[in-house]
Specification:
Order of helices and strands of chain A: HHHEEHEEEEHEEEHEEHEHHHH
Distance between the termini of chain A: 35 Å
Mean pLDDT of chain A: 84
Largest sheet of chain B: 6 strands, mixed
Strand content of chain B: 15-25%
Shape of chain B: globular
Chains: A alpha+beta (about 375), B alpha/beta (about 280), C alpha+beta (about 375)
Strand content of chain A: 15-25%
Shape of chain A: elongated
Low-confidence stretches of chain B: 275-285
Distance between the termini of chain B: 29 Å
Helix content of chain B: 25-40%
Mean pLDDT of chain B: 84
Largest interface: A-C, 70 and 66 residues
Number of strands of chain A: 12
Structural class of chain A: alpha+beta
Structural class of chain B: alpha/beta
Largest sheet of chain A: 10 strands, mixed
Number of helices of chain B: 8
Oligomer: heterotrimer
Amino acid sequence: MGRVPVGRRNLFAERRRAALGIAGVAASFLMVLALDGIVNGATRELTRYIDTSPADVFVAQRGVTNMHMASSWLPLANVKEIRALPSVSWADPILYAPDALTTPTGQQLTYVIGYQPGGRGGPITLSAGSDPGPGEIVIDAQAAQDLRLAVEGSVSVLGRTWRISGLTSGLTNIANTVAFVRFEDFAGSRRVPDIASYILVGGSVSPDSLARRIEANTELTALPRAGFSEQEGALARDMSAQVLQIMTLAAFLIGLAIIGLVLYTATLSRLQEIGVMKALGAMPRRLAVVVLSQALWTVGMALALALVLAFSLSWVLARSAGNITIAFGASAVVPVALGGVVVGVLGAVAPVIRVRRVDPVSVFRR
Amino acid sequence: MATSAIRVEKLEKVFGEGQTEVRAVRGVDLEVEPGEVVLIMGPSGSGKTTLLSMLGAMLRPTSGQIWVDGTNLTALPEAKLPELRARRFGFVFQDFNLLSALSARENVELALNFAGWWGRQARERAERLLGDFGLGERLSFRPDKLSGGEKQRVAIARALANEPAVILADEPTANLDSKIGHEIVRLLRRAATEQKRSVVIVSHDTRLKEAADRVLWLEDGEFRAMSQMATDPVCGMSVEREGTFHFVHDGQTWFFCSAQCRDEFAGVPERFRQGAVVAGAGRRP
Amino acid sequence: MRFAVPLARRNILADRRRLAISTLGVGLAVALILLLAGLWGGVLSGVSAYADRVGADLFVRQPGTMILTEGAVPLAAADAIRTIPGVEGADPVIARYVILDLHGTKEAVSVIGYRPGAMGGPWMLAAGRAVRTGGEIVMDENLGASHGIGLGDTLGLQGERFRVVGLSSGTATFAAGGFLFVSLEEAERLFGESRTATSLLVRASRPASVAEAIRRRTGLAVDPATAVAAGQREVYAGSLGRIVDLMILIAFAAGTLVVALTVYSAIADRLREYGIAKAIGARRRRLFRIVLGQTVVVSAVGTLVGFALYAVSSRVLVALRPQFPSSLSLEAAGGVVLSAGAMALLAAIVPTRRVARLDPASVYRG
């Protein structure tokens, strides 16, 4: 049933105004999507070291369930104890401290990991250089770029200066980065002999039962990798990302308000013509369709534009500011789109509700 | 005689109340037959637009009755009025009131949509009507690309599209020059004569008298006898003979809308006498 | 002075509803920028609150440590420092990150051990008193409030029980968590420290020369409190700051579009009148001024609205989430005002071009 698509015509008759309206709504969408994506991207990267670890179970000082800002100290002798347990395939200690990589020009918060050469817990893959020798350190490529460092350069951490032997990738996030040194070097610089921070354990049974077995036989806390990662993520998110989430929420609310205003303005500009249609005998339902289609077209095209821009932005960011990643997901897009549609429709319809009360007689007057 | 297309009885409209009460229309009676063109004239603020709005089912009267095509408007619920407007009436406005985003064809087609025509049927009818009005080459033009006369022709095509019983026109020539204004009047006249539609025109424009079957004078919300009216020879407005401004020249009494017009006339009466005679109304009994 | 009819102002005031919408739209965008900047300011001042507010002129730390909860300095160094001329006080503090488990929720907190009566303790108390002896603890008021812990309650920390004797304010910080204050002796016991502190806080009459003397005498790192505060801000906020900058940039873009849109619609609705102005001889420059005048007024009023919205929303936010106080520096506020000016200029471009291309002859067409 063909009928004159007044809403769409209204929108496209003045291309420049339509473009501005769509751009205004798209900017709001983009703002919300980008902010949300940034927070997602940031929090997703927070647990990369744990998630990529070969360990099935992380063992820590009693009561310690994560790494971020935690201090865990346990006797190195525990390693032998755990290795002796049945169904434990391997167990390697690491030392850990949060600190800052420091150069004369800058600093970056880091996890420093001390691992035993040949044991687990060190860098999985290197994008450049080699594993750390004595007095050497492996840092993440992104941190190196931010601090203008390269292989064979030097950087201070743990109260001494290290030579950079290699670079990892993907271990830098908004909260911190990860750096690797030899276990003995770490112990020496911190003067903590015969102590480990965590013990990484691999086993031949499920991580859950392995963790239970370790806890039953030692005075330590043992968590499967997934659980340890979850605790780590929750805490790191709480501390680093909450402020971003608050900001995102503010942007979401304000973005929606702007969308409502843009569409309110769009309808307002057509108020006189809506009065004319009423005078010509348009039913209220038809008027609603006109206004709604205008709103939905605007919101729909704005959303499409915003998605394109957001993906472009994430592409550009991935190439220019490597430690800011934008991670979009349906979980962000869906509420944003729904919110936009609801507020957009409300904004667009609000002036017409007034029109219902304005008599069509206004078309005679100027 | 067939039943009247419009019958109005004791129509009253009062705005506000108490101190601010304005009686815009006072006890108006009116009948318009099919095929008849009625011109309603009157000074600004005389209630013309209010009357027209009530006739068009856009404004509820305070009291009195309006029948259109046998339907009592005043008895219909609000929800029925849009459909009535869409099917029984054609509207022509002073400012054309075309929808700026729609093409000429779509403007006509939209009114057809409202009246229950859809799709190709509506489109073809719109094209045919516009073609009849010499706008066949302008179908896809938007109003901002049309001249004033073209816009008003689109507006009249729109008003006729739904085959209305009644066409209500508010100052249809006010924004047009006399040649195009004349053409618009001819179109309205033709719609009445050939298609037996009733046309009610509200206007200041005395040129419309030629096309009207009847001319009514509305002042202070009431119809006055046209015989009491004269034309100001200076500005061409219809004025009451009872008015304060008059001037006797060459044994003849002239009536004016204002002291300014009278003084201008008094300066060089010969300049205006010819025009007044041509306009015709000044000496009508 | 030449008087010109203020067409821009007349146009704006002629349609008050549109003005209200435009200014509200701009106000929302400005409020978002302010909120982002204010939240960020709050984060930054929270991160460096300890260094800024504790009352020390100099921080003496193990060379190379960046984080306030890392590093070790011998307690004996404090005695040596006190003998240096110009030193008015030198007090040790022990600081550690601890993950508290409060009714199943994990909270990262900073525990500060200090000598009762000396430097290092809470600088502002909302209730109660400072720590006098062992077994007592002063807790951040927001941390207490969010877990229903008040004066006289007990708090478990590292397996020990402490009585809450005071609630401190201004000590809930992003990244470092809320602060807990205990006596130095308790901290030594809790964290197994003996004869070492995390840092020494020094008050001095001539900080610069005293710092040099301490450095020579002890070989430790000595930094002015302001430098420590700046370091904290950089370490914790460096990479986040870039994200926030990006967010602010996006909010700015959205705001600019909103101004452009509202002014453009205002102008588009009165295009004929601009044609008239042109037909009766208005020069291009005059028309530009008219358009610019409108965008400037909308931006200016919108900025005021934005500040008002910010004032309200930041108060609401802090009432709901006390750990996110907003702190807007004069520079940031000035920056936002300048941005609003920039918005007005940018937003004038599109409508100006529309008016410039307007054909004065359009007036003569019906």
